[in-house]
Queue: 2 jobs
Job 1
Amino acid sequence: MVKKSLCVLSGGLDSTTATAMSINDGYDIIALHFSYNQLTQQRESEAFDNIVEYLKIENVYKIDLGFFNLIGSTALIDKSIKVPTGGLTDGVPATYVPFRNGIFLSIAAAIAEKEGASKIVLGAVEEDSSGYPDCRSNFISSMQQSINLGTKDSTKITLHTPLIDLNKAQIVQQALQIDAPLHLTWSCYQNSSTACGVCDSCRLRLRGFEIAGVKDLIPYSK
Amino acid sequence: MVKKSLCVLSGGLDSTTATAMSINDGYDIIALHFSYNQLTQQRESEAFDNIVEYLKIENVYKIDLGFFNLIGSTALIDKSIKVPTGGLTDGVPATYVPFRNGIFLSIAAAIAEKEGASKIVLGAVEEDSSGYPDCRSNFISSMQQSINLGTKDSTKITLHTPLIDLNKAQIVQQALQIDAPLHLTWSCYQNSSTACGVCDSCRLRLRGFEIAGVKDLIPYSK
């Protein structure tokens, strides 16, 4: 029987690498994309479409979580909160979206149970991340337990976060080893045609490529 | 400071009783209702509106989870699966919706974090339920831990399931003691103007009223 893996794929560097790793591991892929009224919704959706086409993934779920505008409280959704561009700082940043990965993983669990997927793959990164509590490995372990307790006894799901202990440079190197289509990814937090180069996500990405000693092929405005 | 309680309120017997108990406990209530393409979506939404008006709850979230039609796999959403009416049986029934409470609680957690609510109230019932894995108390405990690990360190949320160990007759008695508006609730799984009286949910409800020795005031077609 072919093993199925449900990959949460935003279209960014991390989730694209994690998905490509799962293909490399021999899994049949189900790709799951969320729109949640984030500023870059359309750009991320395009990146997702291009990546699944490139990776020849046919089983695709695109889910609209428009209700996130009622949650707001984050610079990624609420236009009155500015996306920080001054450089990385300690603590939980303004781009934190309340319990976003909890919501994403819960929906992923329902789809995995329906599809008979034994694995949910999430490109969460703890070490070199933006300080989001829902990217910590103790949260992921606890959520795996919750998912298995809250679904049928016959459903057994592993949450797989292959990048959780890597830094961005290691992720870039991993991606290059398995030919993940990094040129199709979108990481920037700002809604523009080219990546801004100065938001936390662009800074982490650019630093990763720099340390890995390779060129990032997507266009930047700065 | 007023303590805030976020109550997941479907408009059924259990969630209405749990919400009334939280009012009775002195909490400021935020009521959260989900539509998820279930057969009785409109009827449940009306019940919710009537109940929050009756209970004078002003802080209300109504969230549309239309994507549940992509999950399907349940008689409550997929019209090709028949709602069982032959009587209660053992095991997970056809009305099980994959990880529904996991999804509901994750979204509730995000809203509770935004609103600064210390408690999420869910009318889940383990003992006399329909055999749903996401109504078990070990799932609820695990989910509480996941929510606290996956939100800010300053966010502390308790999942409160005051009915989890009660049977339906005890819930009816509890509701009557605090004047919960049971006459406004809707429990039936079928989409009709009056409750069917024969689906699992109607059977559990009617048996509860019968054992409690009181009359159920909502109209039944059988």
Job 2
Amino acid sequence: MNFPDWVTYIQQRTETALQTILPAASLAPCRLHEAMRYAALGGGKRIRSLLVHATGSSFTHAKPEQLDRAACAVELIHAYSLIHDDLPCMDDDKLRRGKPTVHVEYDEATALLAGDALQTLAFQVLAETSVSATAAGQIEAILLLAQAAGSHGMAGGQAIDIASAGHEITREVLESMHVRKTGALVRAAVLIGARAGEGVLDNRRQRLDHYAKRIGLLYQVVDDILDAASDTATLGKTAGKDASNGKPTYVSLLGLTDARRFAEDLLSEAHEALAPLGERASRLHELADFISHRAF
Amino acid sequence: MNFPDWVTYIQQRTETALQTILPAASLAPCRLHEAMRYAALGGGKRIRSLLVHATGSSFTHAKPEQLDRAACAVELIHAYSLIHDDLPCMDDDKLRRGKPTVHVEYDEATALLAGDALQTLAFQVLAETSVSATAAGQIEAILLLAQAAGSHGMAGGQAIDIASAGHEITREVLESMHVRKTGALVRAAVLIGARAGEGVLDNRRQRLDHYAKRIGLLYQVVDDILDAASDTATLGKTAGKDASNGKPTYVSLLGLTDARRFAEDLLSEAHEALAPLGERASRLHELADFISHRAF
């Protein structure tokens, strides 16, 4: 399958798997379940799911259904984080993926609870059916997800992000924020993919982790570039939001040209990390290009 | 050890275990970690922890340290739910356990993220070190916690609670709300205790589950009674809040006398469920009394 067809294929698989995993909107409490489905279905590039599938199918002999569930768990954490990030007390965003954000479409209380319940569901998915050939592997996948989402990962990055608005910060602080806020979950997608099925246990795992760290940061640098260089219609969310919120970004810190150069460096490093893994890593190689391709 | 001494002993063990499990406030992001500690430490009756320990130590041969971790996981979910319930878009409460609520002491964004990160930490705790003698038991404990916390459990009950404000609801709807909102996690405390160590696998488990369901509901009926019949200083949180918010409760639906009678019935049923388990169940018997004792 060529790359664009594969992307579409995995995106559709993920949508179908999420449709099944999410509680039906006809089940009580209906409004909550509706809001959870509204937030988690029908949108997004599903980068995290693509990373889980690309890693798992190339390196672990995992069944596609196991990868679907691992991918859904990561996507559910991502969906929860977007709902909470968009709330008025956080980024106060009205638009996401070209649709009204959850608290605009429903209400704040429902958005809060939908985010909470999506986070819980992510862990439930990983506990309900094994994504790994062993119970120990299943537990490790749960731990990887928790570490990526928690106060040393995504939630911690968000806290630094909120605190940094309106302040000048160093490049080191910016990197540490981005590594947590976006990088941790993108990295977890690769590591959980590598933990699926029989798992990747030799030094190929270190290679994959190095790749994962580079694209985790790359993803956020590209996001900073797109926020500064695109319009709202193209983004499907409010453009120029970081600048108007006084949020430090790679563009505000380095300027557009150097931010692009930094993204190019990260892309090269990601490709280099994969090189010794040979042909098997071709999907991951293409995914690194895919993540960066709108930024140059 | 007599019952009051045992309660104090377990409460202190739980506090110590939580102190260790929660990230230090000196670790970045400091404000987030401070808020997490503020919310989870130094307060509460630790009913859920007492239930984990009483069940686990009497029926499963679990090590006390395993029960500490299981208890902390349940208490962390409880702590997260209180932070989010108190937010302005939910119950908008200013006082909790005699202290300003987290969003009052810190700010709304920090409170939101602290709740999010405490939920994640609960799952991380159960994934990091086994509370069970087997990996399968560990996974089952994680699943029990997720089912209790999610949209069919605690978060779902909260959604029904919010939606019911200002509306007349039937006793059936009220019960279904309470069973989810408070009952699910109280029940999970018993079931996770029963899943610790070597686990309780015979028909004693059904007995414990029946007990757990009764006290889960009892806990909320008692809460309704106390909210109506106490003052703010005694409660450590704003009294009469349910009535002023137009929230249906057992007191608003049945009146104080019949609500008390219902609580007495639930207490008897909880005791009856334990009777065939003999002496081993004595702590759980005492805990049922402890849960209800301020209501009569």
